[in-house]
Specification:
44% of the residues lie in helices and 22% in strands. By secondary structure, the chain is of the alpha/beta class. Helix 1 crosses helix 2 and helix 4 runs parallel beside helix 6.
Length: 240
């Protein structure tokens, strides 16, 4: 795809994982689009024919318009607070990437009349993933695909959601780490858990060094560490 005369040849690993979940010939609405690389690449690859790029900030909108200039009118750029600038039925697939789970949950809550009319919602939350999952589950949707993606020093989750014919119960662990990620353990899941374990241990060490080993925060962290280590043991047993 040409972006101001330059070919956009590839996507970052996390956006490539999102692109793989966009149905062929979908009309994509990309929320928080920034440079609009995701819709631009999909258009250039011939996977979709039209797309709408949404963002609330002027800087990202300017960058998105530069990208859209090379798409021969196939990519429309709109200023929008979440899904407010999109009407029900305008898109068949919505992607919301690169935001905290709480922000994604807020966007979904405020734009429920829009996203509940599409075929698929793709999310790539960065922290507090459970918040976004709860909103989707509460609407009767189910996670149809999930993947962990390593990019630089981070591990990201990418999930595809669609209206569910059968309601499935999610445990607190499912909400935290993802039901599919846990049921069919992703190769990166154990690494993610090990990273979380190290972070908790470092937090406990800092509290201990400050003479606050008995603080209530330390007790919370210890409980957290126990849950993570139990989950890690379960996953390692599955991989056997």
């Amino acid at each position: 795809m040409f972006n101001n005369g330059q070919m956009v040849e590839s996507l970052s690993p996390r956006l490539a994982a999102v692109a793989a979940q966009v149905p062929k010939r979908a009309v994509l609405a990309d929320v928080g689009t920034d440079h609009a690389h995701l819709p631009s690449w999909l258009l250039g690859a011939g996977k979709i024919d039209t797309a709408i790029a949404l963002d609330i900030a002027d800087g990202p909108l300017a960058r998105a318009r530069v990208t859209a200039a090379g798409t021969r009118g196939a990519l429309e750029v709109r200023k929008s607070d979440g899904l407010i600038g999109l009407a029900p039925g305008e898109a068949s697939c919505i992607s919301i990437c690169g935001m905290g789970g709480l922000t994604i949950a807020d966007i979904l809550t405020r734009g429920a009349n829009v996203w509940q009319s599409v075929e698929r919602v793709l999310i790539q939350p960065q922290g507090m993933e459970a918040e976004a999952r709860v909103v989707l589950l509460s609407a009767g949707w189910g996670c149809v695909s999930a993947e962990l993606v390593a990019e630089k020093k981070h591990i990201y989750v990418v999930e595809a959601w669609a209206p569910a014919a059968v309601s499935r119960s999610w445990s607190s662990q499912d909400l935290r780490w993802g039901r599919i990620i846990r049921t069919e353990p992703d190769p990166l899941f154990s690494e993610l858990l090990e990273r979380e374990s190290r972070n908790i241990k470092q937090g406990l060490q800092r509290l201990s060094d400050a003479g606050q080993a008995g603080h209530s925060d330390a007790q919370v962290l210890k409980q957290e560490l126990t849950q993570i280590e139990q989950e890690l043991s379960r996953v390692l047993a599955i991989h056997g």
